[in-house]
Every structure is written in structure tokens, then in C-alpha cells.
Amino acid sequence: MNKLKHTDSNNFFLIAGPCAIEGEDMALQIAEKVVSITDKLNIPYIFKGSFKKANRSRIDSFTGIGDEKALKILRKVSETFDVPTLTDIHKESDAAMAAEYVDVLQIPAFLVRQTDLVVAAAKTGKYVNLKKGQFMSPESMQHAVQKVKDSVSDKVWVTDRGSMFGYQDLIVDMRGIPTMKQYAPTVLDVTHSLQQPNQSSGVTGGRPDMIETIARAGVVNNVDGLFIETHFNPAEAKSDGANMLDLSLLEGLLTRLVAIRQCVNGF
Questions:
Q1: Does residue 39 lie within any of the structural domains?
Q2: How far is CA 150 from CA 116, 120, 123, 127, 142, in A?
Q3: What mean pLDDT comes out for the span 173-184?
Q4: Phi, psi of 141 (to 5 degrees)
Q5: Where is the DAHP synthetase I/KDSA domain (predicted)?
Q6: Residue 7 domain flag
Q7: 5 in a domain, yes or no?
Q8: Does residue 237 surpass a pLDDT of 90?
């Protein structure tokens, strides 16, 4: 991936940004801050932002500012800061459209078993990030990875975002990291792992106070990358604000995580 920097630092790579693209100013503001931090800490960085949100609990939830408008903002982020970008897709026709604007296509956890969607993403030639379904075992992700490889592409990652064992919570089983690393580079989605879905209000809750706990565990267990949604004002974010990291806390968190990675690398 041409725009991915600091690849020789032996650090984890970082996928970070807002849950959804709410506008150009907010996207550029978040990207500028994260780029500054990751350059300082020599962390390979990919900007993340959903161009639309299709899997909402309620019909009146925010879904986006318009597909093309949001995708153009993602392109502007990439051109302004010379970083790769990632967005998720929800149907086969999204794949070719989004591939014109971003470097990585993400398959949402609820859709990772949808063969046509996975194959459409792979055939664009872009990197494909497969979110592990909350309902799937780490071992079962080998089949999703194989679908990408059978589509003549080795550009595939797996991202764990927790497993659902109850009605309104998720659990991260760290045994899944070495299991899925057998199939593809593995990312830990820290913030979505702390969601508390299916609330009676129809608005997903979260435990952002546990972000560092989960992130540290992932780094100690040699995860290849971390996925962190962040916003300068999570309380006013239009999507997933309850589990996002306040942008002001990101530098301190990443500084500590890099120190842990350096320690682990020394063993």
C-alpha cells in the first residue's frame, strides 16, 4: 500500500477515525490530529470513516451525508495527508463505487458470510478488511479469508470485534488472535468490542472506559493492527458515540501502547 508510512518501525498499524463521515471539516480535523500523533510515534496509519451506515437499529438513525459526498471527503483526506483510507461497504454495487475513492474496503461483521459481497470487494483489487461476525468463531473466519484468496487476491485482513455470548454485551477472547493470524494479518477492533448493543432505546451503548484495557491486551498478544474509532466530541457524534475514544486521549493511549509493543518485541 503506497501511502502507508512507518512500515519498518515494527509497530502495530492503526486504523482510526470517526464512525461515520459527518462532514469535510470534521474528517480533516480528526485526520490531521491522528496523522500528527502517528508520525510522532512511527505508527503506520490508515484513516477510517464510513461513507454510509446501513446497519442501524432504528429507521431514524443517522445513515450519512450522501454517498458520493462522503466518498469525495475520504479522497480529500487521503490527498491532503498522504495516507490510505478505509470505508465499509454493504452491498455488491458499493464495492466498485467505493474502490474509486479508498484503499481498503471493509466488510461489516453482520455481512462477512455474504459470499457475493466479499468476492465483489476482492475483485476490485483493493485490500479487504473482514470483520469477524459476533456470531462466528475465530476458526470459521478462515473460510471468509479463503473467499478473498480464491478471488485472486491476497490483500486480506481479519478484524476481531468481540463475540456475543449474551443479549447486550460482547466478549473479546484473546485466543482468537493467534488463531486468526494463521489465516491473515489480524486487527483488534478495540472500540466496537466495547459496544453494548440491543439497548431498549435502540441506541447502542458502550464502555469507552475499557478501551485501554482491551488495547493493551491486544498489543501484548501480538495483534498486527488496532482499530479505534475516535471523535473530538463523542457525545455529539452522529453514530457510535457511546463507545468512541475522545480524540484528546489518543496520543497518551498510543504512547503507552507503543511502549508495550517495544517491550514485547524485546522478548
A1: yes
A2: 13, 12, 10, 14, 12
A3: 97
A4: -70, -15
A5: 8-253
A6: no
A7: no
A8: no
Domain of residue 29, CATH code: 3.20.20.70
| pTM of structure | 0.93
Residues near 231 by Cβ (< 8 Å), separated by ≥ 6?
A: 18, 19, 26, 30, 237, 241, 244, 245, 246, 247
Distance CA 77, CA 82 (A): 8
Q: What is the pLDDT of residue 198?
A: 57
Yes or no: say if 145 and 138 are a contact pair by the CB < 8 Å rule.
no
C-alpha cell at 139: 476458526
Residue scoring higher pLDDT (2 or 35): 35
Q: For the chain, how big is the Rg over CA atoms in Å?
A: 17
Q: Into how many domains does the chain fold? A: 1
User: Is 4 domain-assigned?
Assistant: no
The string of pLDDT tens digits covering residues 61-112 is 777 899 999 999 999 999 999 999 999 999 999 999 999 999 999 999 999 9
Domain extent at residue 257: 13-265
